[in-house]
Amino acid sequence: MNKSIQHIINAARMGDVDALKSLITADTDLNATDEKGYTPLIIACYSNRLEAARYLLQAGADPNVADFGGNTALMGACFKGYPEIATLLIENGADLNRQHGNGGTALMFAAMFGRNAMIELLLKYGADKTLLDSRGMSVFDLAAQQGNEEGISILESHHSA
C-alpha cells in the first residue's frame, strides 16, 4: 500500500473532506486498499462519514469493491445501521445482493444485528430475501437465530414486486 492511500484512508475515517480534496488527484486509485483490504470508501462508510463517502463516490470510488473478506461498504453500513450511508451507496450503484466470502448479504447483516430500519430500506430498494449463505441459511433463519422477531415480521410483510 502506498503512503498516499493511507493518508486518504485516514482522511476518510475522520470525514475530512477538505483533506480528501487536497489528497485525491486524477491518477489516484480510489479503490486501492490498506493491509486489511479496506478502501477509503469502505472506511468512510463504516465510520459513518456521509460527506466523505459522497465525495469519494463523486471522485470515482466503486461502491462494490470488497475487502479481503468480501465485505462491501453497503454491508458495513448495514452492520452498523447507517441508513443515510446505505441510501447513498444504493443510489450510486451498490449491489444490494452481493454476497461476501461466506455468502452473507447486506440484508442478512441487517437482520442478524437487529438493524430493522435497514431491512426495510434494503427491501424497498429490491434486496433479494431468498438468497442463502454458504451454510444454506436464509435471512429468515439468521434473524430467527438472533431472536429478531421484528425483523422476521418486516421480511414476511414485504412482498417482492
TrEMBL record:
ANK repeat ranges per the UniProt record = 36-68, 69-101, 102-134
Cross-referenced Gene3D superfamilies, in alphabetical order? Ankyrin repeat-containing domain
- Record-linked InterPro entries: Ankyrin_rpt (IPR002110), Ankyrin_rpt-contain_sf (IPR036770)
Per the record's keyword annotation, is Zinc included, yes or no? no
What keywords would UniProt list here?
A: ANK repeat, Repeat
Query: Could you tell me which Pfam families the record lists for this protein?
Result: Ank, Ank_2
Top-level taxon in the UniProt lineage: Bacteria
Name listed for the protein in its UniProt record: Ankyrin repeat domain-containing protein
